[in-house]
Amino acid sequence: MAEEEKSLEDRIRSLRLPNDDEVFGVVESSMGSGHMKVRCKDGNMRTCRIPGRLHKRVWIREGDVVIIEPWQVQSDEKGDIVYRYTQTQVGWLKKAGIWKE
């Protein structure tokens, strides 16, 4: 059991967490053309785009947990999707108490 918790702590440390200007979010719906409606943990509903560097590499669906970087202008309305968590990673975040639904 102690080995399992140690490996969980190591996994959490190696996991990408939001920086100071980034927030967690859950994808609510796809709007097409690489744009998504995302409900963010800070209480805002943002229209977020998938940047070109992620567009073909990462498939994002409704219900996925993502990290959002709000834009400098219209920061409460728009942002960029920076990272998508897998279901396994979301489970690790829940066990560590970082993500609560």
Automatic annotation (TrEMBL):
Quote the protein name from its UniProt record. Answer: Translation initiation factor 1A
Single annotated GO MF: translation initiation factor activity
Q: What does this protein do?
A: Seems to be required for maximal rate of protein biosynthesis. Enhances ribosome dissociation into subunits and stabilizes the binding of the initiator Met-tRNA(I) to 40 S ribosomal subunits.
Q: Which organism is it from?
A: candidate division MSBL1 archaeon SCGC-AAA382A13
- Which Pfam families is this protein grouped with? eIF-1a
The yes or no answer to whether the keyword Nucleotidyltransferase is present is no
What HAMAP family does the annotation carry? aIF_1A
Q: Which NCBIfam families match?
A: eIF-1A (TIGR00523), PRK04012.1-3 (NF003084), PRK04012.1-5 (NF003085)
